[in-house]
Amino acid sequence: MIGRLNHVAIAVKDIASASALYSDTLGAKVSPVQDLPEHGVRVVFVELPNTKIEFLEPLGAASPIAKFLEKNPDGGMHHICYEVSDIRAARDRLVAAGARVLGDGEPKIGAHGNPVLFLHPKDFLGTLTELEEVPA
Ligand code: CO
After folding, report:
1. For a FRET experiment, which of 61, 79, 89, 100 has its CA 20 to 30 Å from that of 73?
2. What residue numbers bound the domain in which 101 lies?
3. Tens of pLDDT along 31-69?
4. In which region does residue 130 sit, left (phi positive, over 0), alpha (psi from -120 to 50) or beta (all else)?
5. CB within 8 Å of 109: residues ≥ 6 apart
6. E strand or H helix that includes residue 46
7. How many domains does the chain have?
8. How buried is 21 (Cβ within 10 angstroms: 0-12 exposed, 13-18 middle, 19+ buried)?
9. Does the global pTM surpass 0.90?
10. What CATH number did the domain enclosing 107 receive?
11. How far does the centroid of ligand 1 lie from the alpha carbon of residue 24, in Å?
12. Cα 9 to averaged position of ligand 1 atoms, centre (Å)
């Protein structure tokens, strides 16, 4: 069911210095900063030949990554994202198997303009797992 690894996300306190680290020190291609107020984060994507790295910085007081950064003040790996061709079919199959979908269970539009869902880390090896619908 799952396809390509779309991205690995790293939560950071300072997205500008994270971007500089990856562009200057690691020599990677880094996107401009994008604010996603409906998700409570600012994001940057690092384009790698085979996948992407996503930086997440808290945006607003109720950011869902604020608590994570309290526990991981240096930043840390936050989630992984796999591509699926039909996100509602994927969700229905996972829910039938007992997996928990975060939020109201309905896909939301993510940073790439595609529908996304998050699966509970306790059901997926302690790893917050995102699914993104990418047309085949
Ligand atoms: Co993501």
Report:
1. 100
2. 5-133
3. 999 999 988 999 999 999 999 999 999 998 889 899 999
4. beta
5. 115, 116
6. strand 41-47
7. 1
8. middle
9. yes
10. 3.10.180.10
11. 23
12. 6
